[in-house]
Amino acid sequence: MYQSHFGLRESPFNITPNPAFFYSGNARGDILEAMLYAVAQGEGIIKLTGEVGTGKTMLCRMLESRMPPHIDVIYLVNPNLNPLEVQHAIAAELGLPTSGQRADEVQRALHTELIARHSAGRQVVLLVEEAQAMPLDTLEAIRLLTNLETARSKLLQIVLFGQPELNQHLELSSMRQLKERITHSFQVPALQADLTGDFLAFRLRAAGHAGPALFSPGAARLIAEASEGIVRRINILADKALLAAFADDAETVDVHHARQAILESPFGRRRGRWRPKPVVLMVVLIMCICGLVLAAAAFL
Questions:
Q1: Are residues 97 and 177 in the same domain?
Q2: Which of 119, 186, 190 minimizes the C-alpha distance to 150?
Q3: What are the phi and psi torsion angles at 14 (to 5°)?
Q4: Positive or negative: CA dihedral 33, 36, 40, 45
Q5: Could you report the per-residue pLDDT of 132-153, keeping only the tens digit for each?
Q6: b/e per residue, 51-89, with b = 16+ CB within 10 A?
Q7: Which residue from 27, 92, 94, 246 lies 20 to 30 Å from 215 (Cα-Cα)?
Q8: What is the 3-state secondary structure (H, E, C) of the chain?
Q9: pLDDT band at residue 1 under the 50/70/90 scheme
Q10: Where residue 133 sits, what CATH number does that domain have?
């Protein structure tokens, strides 16, 4: 709606992960490079955790897009699978027929296929999203897949993406074998407040903007505060603020546009309405009582 008004060829703040809009600041580029290095080592399990909306899926997509040509990437996106179903799902990702086969038959087929790919110079990497929502026995079944190996290397590299609850699951005694297989762990941080303006400018440039900054420093600060550094929230607020500026026929997004966007967002409303703390209420009450006492004394 506002793209032509601001000289954009596409919407800059869609929340669907698009590698063209990957922001490498705030350690994200470093995390990606470290994950690529860990995958290249071909051993153990890699884990990446982060709060909802911090950019885990974007890093997952970037990891896939940057994989070397000899690596075959397969996905496991449905966390609600039991141990047998997860083997069937992985086999299906590899193009293997599994209908009517027993668990041991599926595992043998997986092993045979992985050995064939390894012999052909291929490496297979399994990307597991929403790992924190998986049943514990399914996580254990995934761990057992790392037992598929040759004398020198693993046949399947696994990367787990999940919310912080995944770390809590790994602290359970029943999960200690899986935890010990994790050789590299990464955490996606919230975006630093002082990088919000740079993030907004980067997304706008990626969408085709070539002019001066569209977001005023004050608008960027408000968005940083209301979003608490959660990238998905920043995108939502920035999109709403651009729409508000477009409705005003403004050339830039100012503080009042950011405030309007915050008021129209559920997480913004929670933070945007000032609520006095109990101690503040007590001070106000004491001042009122003192005022009444003084007024009564003066009257007498």
A1: yes
A2: 119
A3: -65, 145
A4: positive
A5: 999 999 999 999 888 887 767 8
A6: bebbbbbbbbbbbbeebeeebebbebeebebeeeebbbb
A7: 27
A8: CCCCCCCCCCCCCCCCCCHHHCCCCCCHHHHHHHHHHHHHHCCCEEEEECCCCCCHHHHHHHHHHCCCCCEEEEEECCCCCCHHHHHHHHHHHCCCCCCCCCHHHHHHHHHHHHHHHHHCCCEEEEEECCHHHCCHHHHHHHHHHCCCECCCCECEEEEEEECCHHHHHHCCHHHHHHHHHEEEEEECCCCCHHHHHHHHHHHHHHCCCCCCCCECHHHHHHHHHHHCCCHHHHHHHHHHHHHHHHHCCCCCECHHHHHHHHHCCHHHHHHHCCCCCHHHHHHHHHHHHHHHHHHHHHHC
A9: confident
A10: 3.40.50.300
What is the pLDDT, as a whole number, of residue 292?
54
> Would you say the C-alpha torsion 202, 208, 214, 215 has a positive or negative sign?
negative
| Same domain? 89 vs 181 | yes
Q: Which of 144-148, 190-194, 250-254 has the lowest mean pLDDT?
A: 144-148
99 confidence band (pLDDT: 50, 70, 90): confident
Tokens of 210: 């070539």
Number of domains in the chain: 2
**Residue 211 shares a structural domain with residue 164:** no
Q: Are residues 138 and 200 in the same domain?
A: no
**Same domain, yes or no: 41 and 147:** yes
**Pair (174, 204) in one structural domain:** no
Separation CA 190–CA 192 (nearest Å)? 6
